[in-house]
Design goal:
Elements (H helix, E strand, L loop, with lengths): L1 H15 L3 E5 L3 H11 L4 H4 L5 H17 L6 E7 L2 E7 L5 E7 L7 H16 L10 H17 L6 E10 L4 E9 L5 E2 L3 E3 L3 H8 L12 H17 L6 E9 L2 E9 L5 E8 L6 H5 L12 H13 L3 E10 L4 E10 L3 E10 L3 E13 L4 E10 L2 E10 L7 E12 L5 E13 L5 E15 L5 H4 L3 E14 L10 E15 L3 E15 L4 E14 L41 E14 L2 E13 L11 E12 L2 E10 L9 E7 L4
Parallel strand pairs: 1-3, 4-6, 7-10, 8-10, 11-13
Antiparallel strand pairs: 2-3, 5-6, 9-10, 12-13, 14-15, 15-16, 16-17, 17-18, 18-19, 19-20, 20-21, 21-22, 22-23, 23-24, 24-25, 25-26, 26-27, 27-28, 28-29
Helix pairs in contact: 5-6
């Protein structure tokens, strides 16, 4: 305690003597910027009394900062006045990089040459190419980066040197001239192997028959090396040692492999530990198809990734344990994460009005890796309650099985609907981009209306049983905020109506959209959807089984579901066929703010036989969007180009979510 009391006065005196660092010689705006950027580095200096060596350090940091902002001829002198360190700046002219050019013959165009020269500076200093400050050390880095790119592109003898840097005094731009001796393109020859049999060599060579004879780019070299290593991982030689030497000579590139393949192993046991709630057999079953077979490490990795993607486990560590008898055991260490979540959400749009919801999910229900989900939702149009459970690894394959029950009440324009039902579905995703969902469902539906006739409404009380197939191909660059790529869905459904009236129907619905990125600020969206439902008897098709169109993802000069035939009271009736087309130019304004100009057209037809692509309803409009991680917030107005009697002149829409 006595020692502590003696220290406190010293600390107090030290705080009183904390140095002030003052920058002079530059304008006020620059001074504020430099002081803010220097603050983290000067904390130690400014918290202590001013000394000559601390002033020297402060001057060094400021000089370095000036150089990195393009003041190549700056100077900083320090002085001490009392307990104040004064940094006097002579900044001189600020320089920026200008054009990057070469008089040599090269496969690099002007844009590519510029981009690869600037890359180290842009990534290292977080600046743009347009206003990149001249920093002398980055000239050498840029030259090296251009040379490395050429080598990675199979010009392995390429040599890039700096001819000169020339300042344009009128602009302050430092133009760079390079000499590029590109050399000849190198071609891949057949790899050589040491340490393995000729038969094994032939098996490996079959893995990349099309690469030999191609340019020896880094990408192709890495691909060959990966294929060779993967071969031994797949064929039981898990501990094989694969060394490779890359030889460049006479415009040819040869990969020389030296391999000690070691022993081939067969998988025997799966040992799981660390799991508390999850059944061990549920974890081990992911690997069961590998047991008593030559150990395939690639398949084991895929099984591990499936476990991690389930969201149940925060860690899965697989350790192969070789045994002396030629068998291998897998030790699987598990760490379970949080699998139960409860959340609420709130939202709004121009059709649903206020949206309130409560959801519950358990990714590991009963410890069996089943996914239980339940939610209740209120909107201005009705209520929804549903509960479902999913077996994500149905029959041990890449197929998930889901069964759900639901109850809903909806109030579209003109009628009210109550439905209660259940559905079972199987989803298979053989690739990252393609999925297929088969479903079988049934439900009881009751509809009523105070404004529609019985003929307009169709059957009021009925049971709908349906079986269908939904296919999706998604090649977009982002599922939430896409700007490039194709997305398509094909729905086919066969169903029956039994109740006030009895009929059957076949339904097909095709949705296509394509985005094309023009540049960093602009992209195009095109869309075409078409659907047909063919009932055995049109008069017996209920209103809620018909197609409706109009609204945020359709012809935007109409309210939601407002396009097409209407009842005598003016309410939407839907139809047996529809189509929608759209074209849209989107431009980024600033940050997450976007604007677009769109043109929509389409129609809904009472009878499927009337489907025609002539005389559609047409709309033109503007959209403002804010792109958020959850999806875009959209404000849109569509103007009716060929307004018919009783149709709106235009409609405003507000919603959250991607457009088709």
């Amino acid at each position: 305690m006595k020692y502590l009391l003696s220290i406190i006065p010293l600390l107090f005196i030290s705080l009183l003597q904390a140095a002030e660092v003052r920058i002079v010689g530059i304008d006020e705006k620059s001074r504020v910027i430099f002081e803010d950027q220097l603050k983290p580095r000067l904390q130690f200096i400014s918290a202590r009394p001013a000394t000559s060596w601390r002033a020297d350090d402060a001057a060094f940091y400021l000089k370095r900062l000036l150089l990195r902002r393009g003041y190549a001829k700056s100077d900083v002198q320090w002085s001490i006045s009392g307990n104040t360190i004064i940094l006097k700046v002579t900044s001189g002219q600020r320089y920026f990089y200008g054009t990057v050019a070469t008089r040599s013959t090269t496969t690099l165009d002007s844009e590519a040459l510029t981009n690869y020269f600037y890359q180290p500076l842009v990534e290292g200093e977080l600046v743009s190419i347009k206003n990149a400050p001249y920093i002398q050390e980055y000239t050498d880095k840029g030259v090296t980066n251009v040379e490395n790119f050429l080598k990675a592109s199979a010009f392995w003898k390429a040599k890039v040197t700096l001819v000169k840097e020339q300042l344009d005094p009128s602009t302050g731009r430092m133009n760079v001239l390079l000499d590029i001796d590109q050399g000849q393109l190198h071609i891949l020859t057949r790899p050589t192997f040491k340490g393995i049999s000729p038969a094994t060599q032939q098996e490996i060579l079959q893995l990349f028959p099309d690469i030999v004879g191609q340019a020896s780019t880094t990408e192709n070299i890495v691909k060959i090396n990966a294929e060779v290593n993967s071969y031994f991982r797949r064929t039981g030689y898990h501990f094989a040692k694969v060394d490779v030497e890359t030889l460049h000579a006479n415009n040819r590139t040869t990969l020389a492999f030296t391999i000690n393949q070691g022993r081939r192993y067969v998988l025997r046991n799966i040992k799981v530990h660390g799991n508390r709630d999850t059944e061990t057999k549920r974890i081990a079953r992911q690997y069961k198809n590998l047991v008593n077979k030559t150990y395939d490490a690639d398949k084991a990795d895929k099984a591990t990734n499936k476990l991690l993607r389930s969201g149940i486990f925060s860690k899965v560590i697989v350790t192969p344990q070789p045994q002396d008898d030629g068998y291998i055991d897998l030790d699987i260490e598990i760490e379970e994460g949080k699998s139960v979540t409860t959340s609420t959400y709130v939202g709004t749009d121009s059709y649903e009005g206020l949206i309130l919801g409560l959801s519950y999910s358990d990714l590991n229900f009963a410890g069996k890796m089943w996914q239980l989900s339940a939610r209740g939702e209120y909107t201005g149009r009705g209520l929804l309650g549903e509960v479902g459970i999913t077996e994500p690894f149905f029959l041990g394959e890449l197929v998930s099985f889901n069964v759900r029950g639901f109850a809903l009440q909806r109030s579209p324009d003109g009628y009210e609907k109550y439905e209660i039902g259940t559905e079972g579905s199987w989803t298979w995703q053989p690739t990252d981009n393609y999925s297929l969902r088969a479903y079988l469902g049934t439900g009881f539906v009751s509809t009523s209306s105070g404004s529609m006739t019985d003929e307009e409404l169709g059957p009021r009380d009925y049971v709908n049983t349906r079986i269908g197939l939904l296919q999706n191909l998604d090649l977009r660059n982002d599922p939430i905020l896409p700007s490039d790529g194709y997305n398509g869905e094909l729905l086919t459904e066969l169903g029956s109506i039994v109740g006030d009236a009895t009929t059957s129907y076949f339904k097909i619905d095709v949705n296509n959209s394509y985005r094309y990125s023009i540049n960093d600020k602009h992209y195009l969206i095109s869309r075409f959807d078409v659907g047909v439902i063919t009932p055995a008897e049109s008069a017996k098709l209920p209103i809620d089984r018909r197609f409706f169109s109009g609204g945020t993802n359709s012809v935007r000069s109409f309210d939601e579901r407002g396009l097409g035939p209407r009842s005598n009271a003016g309410d939407p009736l839907g139809g047996e066929a529809y189509w929608v087309g759209s074209a849209e130019l989107v431009r980024r304004i600033k940050g997450p703010i976007y604007a677009s100009l769109f043109y929509d057209l389409g129609q809904v037809y009472s009878q499927y036989e009337d489907l025609s692509f002539s005389n559609p309803s047409q709309a033109i409009g503007l959209s403002a969007r804010i792109h958020l991680p959850i999806g875009p917030i959209r404000f849109e107005y569509g103007y009716n180009l060929n307004r018919q009697p009783k149709e709106p002149q235009g409609t405003f829409h507000f919603t959250i979510g991607a457009s088709f």
